[in-house]
Amino acid sequence: MITRAYHWILLIAVCLVSGPGLHAQTATGDKPKPTFRIVSVVGSYGELHYRINAKEPDRIITVNRALSAPLPAPSGLLEIYRLVPPPADSPVDTPPTRQVVIKADLNSNIPESIVVVLPLTPTDQKTLFETRVISPDRDFEAGTCLIANFSSFDQAAVSIKKDIHTVGMGKIDIVNFTDGHNLIKAAVEKGGKWAVACDDAWRLSSQYRGYILIFPYIPDPDYPPPPIAPPVIVRINFEFAPVPPAK
To answer: What's the sign of the alpha-carbon dihedral 78, 58, 34, 204?
Structure first.
């Protein structure tokens, strides 16, 4: 049974094609600075902080089930933390302490990494997170879609129109798609059979790029549980691709 109401599939039209945006190349031809995007499997967790470097002020972010906009990335290790107030009996000028809840090693040679986080205790706003990083090893451009299988199933399959793509557990693939009406299905191999988790229609443009992220199913603290739990959570996101820098 396909429970469409619980797929929480998102279409975010993020236009990154004008102005001196994060993906733009400078007038002097400098290499664009690396960025990262972050998404949680379930839940929404606010008042999180990180720094690009020791000289920069804190940046405050919220991590939730929607793929974030590109954020300026530090070089190397990304640490996202909460500020924990000092005990009530501390001196008045005692600063808060930092509790690191997310760590991710970012490849500074990759223009845009995707940080996927799994809350260990989803109902607790103070939860710690398990982290994985997606670093595409080839151009992720207009007309392509990144598929990632972070589920516990050995094989996941995604069909876009008539093309079927299989992705092993813990693997990613970047595939092409065509303009127009596309039926997108996602399934996992379970007990020798394919269990469909997602079946939705999308109208796509060659100016888009997309993400299909497949996660293990866990209950989302912000939603009531579905009558029948799907085998996995599937998040689909298409957006305008950034314009390649001028040569």
So the answer is: positive
The pLDDT tens digits of the residues spanning 96-122 come to 999 999 999 998 888 889 999 999 999
Strands 172-176 and 129-134: unpaired
Q: Per DSSP, what are the bridge partners of residue 113? A: 36
pLDDT in tens, 200-231: 999 999 999 999 999 999 999 999 999 999 99
pTM, two decimals, is 0.82
Please give the order of strands across the beta sheet that includes 144-149: 172-176, 144-149, 208-216, 232-240
Instruction: Specify the amino acid at residue 156.
Output: A
- In angstroms, the CA 193 to CA 187 distance is 10
Contact call for residues 175 and 147 (beta carbons, < 8 A): yes
Contacts 24+ apart (CB under 8 A), 97-103: 98/49, 101/48, 101/127, 101/128, 101/129, 102/38, 102/48, 102/63, 102/78, 102/129, 102/131, 103/77, 103/78, 103/79, 103/131
Averaged pLDDT score across all residues of the chain: 86
Q: How many CA atoms lie within 13 A of 247 on its CB side?
A: 0
How far, CA to CA in Å, does 87 sit from each of 94, 136, 154, 183? 9, 44, 47, 55
